[in-house]
């Protein structure tokens, strides 16, 4: 039991809280960087390995298969060995994947290295939001939880910028760069420094107090709570103790209801994950350079447009951070669903009615091209202040302490499977049905997401984790 002397009321330093949540969010940065860095290399990879459209889809989405696997098991690893150790393992996987992807000799081994990195991405996608939620005070949890998405979009943006810089300096992604090595290989090697930094930063932050209480290490938990929350830490430890199973380790069986199916709250988490991907956001970030080239833009202009889109994503995530704890989670999701439905519908209409060239590719010019560019960036804007950050905030906070790691693992694994499905099917959709059909499907998903939020999502703003 915790001694009365451990009741600490010292107000914690906000800078320290930002540091430790920021260090955890580095996993989100690598999540974004690793999944988006392939954007500038897709066309070069396809030609270097003489890959078909389906093989290209698997090469791009290979990391997503690993992400689903990594996410599924990350909760068990985090519950057994701790959140910090799981972050270090993810750092090692990111580093190995970055090295291997750059030295790949063909499609098969390239997919293997990408799958390995995906394991790290999946683990980071579970551990970071769980850890941030567990160390954040309730009144700051939305903003600090949004750091995960901010880190993701910054990672995406810097990956796109590094791709652009390398391709521009080399002349193209296929051209030789430093030491005569193809530029697209250097695109993957740029991930090595942040991957190593993530591991170093993880070793500098404290373990989650919820994990420590679950392990019976209440004195250590009180010390961490004093650093991050302050107030009456003894009472806080007692509250955590009441919501954490200490007799046995949390398991996936905890997610089942008495009737045998998944708990309703777990299904809701899965729904959030699926709709976040089915609106097609990652088509923009994985394939945008190919997409814009397909409608007539040059490689340089396509990469420029992609970089601008990444910058828009960062700005809108900052908007979400500013307002998530003021407006709440549900209103932002509703606004995002409405905005995405309108902008995706516009893209579907523009691409569906576009003229085609002799190769069968749609061509946009004049007003149609400007409309498509505006709609695409407004779509990213609508996603960026809503479904991008809010889903991660909610997945980190909506489950109680007993369920959190396991439920977040399952929801994140399903999210990666949905991401894989969308990313793998896009090249064949583009080739056989056209962009109009693809964006029509994403528009439908965005419209359905609105009703999902209206009927199933409950507001969690300002609630303590122990109240969930």
Notes on the protein architecture:
With 468 residues, the chain is an all-alpha fold. It has a single domain, classed as MFS general substrate transporter like domains (Growth Hormone, Chain: A), CATH 1.20.1250. It has helices spanning 14-36, 42-48, 53-81, 83-102, 107-135, 141-170, 183-189, 192-202, 209-214, 218-228, 233-243, 264-278, 281-294, 299-327, 329-352, 367-384, 387-397, 404-432, 435-456, and strands at residues 355-356, 362-363. It has a two-stranded antiparallel sheet with strand order 1-2. A hairpin with a 5-residue loop joins strand 1 and strand 2. Helix 3 runs antiparallel to helix 18, helix 4 packs antiparallel against helix 5 and helix 13 (281-294) packs antiparallel against helix 14 (299-327). It is globular. The two termini are 24 Å apart.
Number of domains: 1
| Integer-rounded radius of gyration | 22 Å
- Tell me the strand order in the biggest sheet: 1-2
Strand content: under 5%
Order of helices and strands: HHHHHHHHHHHHHHHEEHHHH
Q: Tell me the name of the CATH homologous superfamily.
A: MFS general substrate transporter like domains
Described by strand count, sense and barrel closure, the largest sheet is: 2 strands, antiparallel
Q: What structural class results from the helix and strand content?
A: mainly alpha
CATH fold naming:
Growth Hormone, Chain: A
The portion of residues assigned to helices is over 70%
